[in-house]
Amino acid sequence: MRRRKSFLCPATLLPMLMLAISINLMSGTSEAAKSNEYADIEDNDFAEFDFEDETDESSKVEVEDEDDEFDTNVEDEEAEVEVETENDDEFSHFEDDEEFEGFNPKEDHEDPDEFYNEPKARPEKATPNPPKQPIKIVNIPAHLRTNWENYYMEIFMIIGIIVYFLNFFTGKTKNQKIANQWFNSHRSLLESQFSLVGDDGSKNTEDIQEPLTKESENIFTFWCSGRVCCEGMLVELKLLKRQDLVGVISTAMKPAHDQVHVRVEMSPEDMDSFIFCIANKKSSLRLAKEMNDLATYCPERRPADKFDIPGSYFIMSEVAEVASAMLDAKMISMFRKYPDAIDTIHFSDQFTGPKPGEDQQPLELPQGKQVLIFVFNILTGKDKSLDEAIEETKPLMQLVFYCLDKVKRYKLSREAKTKADKNRTRVAENHWRSIHAVKAEKAAEEREKKRREIKERIREIEDPEKQRKMEERENRREKKKQQPKMKQLKV
Amino acid sequence: MQCANDPRRPERIVRYVSPQAVLNAQNDEKKDAPNDDLTPDYMNVLGMIFSMCALMMRIKWCGWVAVYCSCISFANTKYNDDTKQIMSSFMLSISAVVMSYLQNPMPMTLPFTG
Questions:
Q1: ipTM entry
Q2: Rounded distance, CA A197 to CA A178, Å?
C-alpha cells in the first residue's frame, strides 16, 4: 500500500522546498549538467517510499518506525522522507501526469534555477540532516572592538598597581636584610651584656626561635634582659618605609635615616630623681611639645654650645647640675666623633610617654617609669655602605652601657634632690586639684540634672493640690541642704 | 661562674610584655598605644569613602583611588593588626571598580579633562 500522501502534505512540502532552494543556490551551474542523474535521483527519492518494492524490507520497517515519530516532529524532519498511510484520494492528483504540465522527469534540465536533486543529496539524505539552526547575528558593542588605546588610563592604573607591589616586595626584603644584618653584627656585644637577648614569648628562654620580632614591614624589635642595674632593654629598629611607594617618594623629597631606638628600663632603686634630655633641634622641638615629663618638668630649651658640642643640639634639664654631670668628656667626644649619628638622649624617672589628649585626661596620677632612651641614626649614604653604617652604631651601643652604669652610680646633691622632690610634689598636688575640680564639676552637673528631672515630674502631675505639696517638700529639702551642718548633742 | 666584671645576671631576667598587651590589660576596649602610626587607619577610611563614591555616584576614578588607598593601608599595617579590616577594604575597593565598569564600560575620564 502506498504511503505517499502524508509525505506530500503542506507541512512537509514547504520545508522541503526551502531546503531544496538552498541546496540549489549552493550547487551552481556546473551541477546542472548532471541533470540526468538528478532526474534519476529524484525518481529514486520518491521510490524510497514505494513499499511495493519487496526487496527493500528493512527500509519499509524503518519507514514504519519513522512514521510513528513523524506526527510529532513534522517541522524538523523536513529533509527526511517519511511516508504515512493515508487515503489515496487526497493526493491522487499527484499521480496524474497531466497535473504537472510541461514537466518531464526524463528530460534534461538545462535551467540552472530549476529545482532538481543533486547526487550529493543522496548520502546526506541517507543520514538524518541536522536541524536547521537559526543564524544569530551578535552585536559587538563599539567599545569592545579592537581600540584598546582608549583605555590608556586604566592600563596606566594597572601598571601603577603592579609597580607598587613590586616595590612592596623589594622594599620589604631590603628592610628585612638590614634588620637581620644589624642584629647579627651586634649580637655578640649584646650577649656579653645580657643573659637574654631576644624574646619571642616562648615559655622557656631556651626555646626562643626568633629573637627579632617583626612589628611591621619597617619596624623590628627585640628585648634584652638579665643584667645588673636594669630590668631590661628594648631595641626598636625603625627603618624607612621602603615597602611603601609613597614612603619612598617622601623620603626622596625629604631625606630621613633608618633609626635605632634603645629604651633601657631601670630598676627604681638604681636611678635618682632627675630628668635630662639632649636632642637635635628638630627632635627637641617635637619632644618638648609631645613628651609629658619634658613638658611638665623641663619647660626651657637651652642650646648645647656651652658644652662644645658640634651641630645644633638643645638641652632640656630639670636641674642644671644634671646636664653638667651627664655631659662628661666621654659623652662629648662621642658627639664630636659621630656628629648626626646621635639624635636624642633622654633620661627620666617620671617617664609616662606622650601627653594625653584633652579628652583623655587620666583620673589617677600616672606612675612614672625610670628609663634611659637613646635614638641613633644609621647613616647610609653615597660614601658609606650599609655595613660601615651598621659598624658605626657599635660604639654608640657601647655608649648606652656606659650611660647605664653612670646613671646607676650618679646621686644628686642635696639641693638638687630637694628641688626635684618639691617639683614632683607640686605636680602631684596640681594633678589632684585638677582632678578634684573635674569631679566637683561633674557632681554639680549631676545634681542639676536631678533637680530638673524632679521639677519635670512635679509639672507633669495633673492634680494642683498634689503639685503644691510636692513643691513644698522639695523646697524644704533644699533649705535643709543649704543649712550648715551642725552636730547635735543629745542631752 | 661569673667574674666580677660580668654584668649579666640570669636571675634578673624579666620577660617581655608588649605595650599593646599592657594597654589591653588596663583598658576594657582594645586601644592602640599612643604615638602609633595612624597611616593605615586613615588610608582605610579614605579607601572606604572613595569606594562608596565609586559605587553610588558611578565615578570610575574614585574606585581606582580606593584601590590605591587599600594598597597603601596594606603596606603600612602592623602585624598585630586585624587582617580582616584590610581584606574587607581591598574587596570593597575592587568591587567598586568592577561595578562601575559593569554599569558603564566606557573608558575612564578624569574630572578635569571633562
A1: 0.91
A2: 18
